[in-house]
Amino acid sequence: MVRKALEAVRERSRINQVEGTFFKYGDATFDRGALSAFVSDSIHAVDLVSWIAGGKPVSAALVAGRHDGEPEDNAWNGS
Asked: pTM value?
């Protein structure tokens, strides 16, 4: 699905900015609280954004947040 969507976008224009958002639903800690979802899972979102961008980042920013009363950060937005 992602490949098809990316093909459709690239047929119409050039990609010059990619932004990704990662949400972890539920308990955002792993390994009895030793790992956050950011450390454990967000690399998959970073890999996808890097692949879509097709190059190395020039600059980046990250905002973290908590949803649903979770005790640990469980949402990250990077661009």
From this structure: 0.57
Q: How many domains does the chain have?
A: 1
H or E, element range at 21:
strand 20-23
Q: What is the pLDDT of residues 48-74, one digit of tens each?
A: 888 888 877 778 888 888 888 888 888
Which residue, chain included where needed, has tokens 């980046």?
60
Pick from 27, 4, 6: nearest CA to 18: 6
Residue 8 CA to residue 12 CA, distance in Å, equals 7
Residue with tokens 């990609």: 15
In a domain, 44, yes or no: yes
DSSP character string of 65-78: E--TT-SS--EEEE
Phi, psi of 23 (to 5 degrees): -115, 140
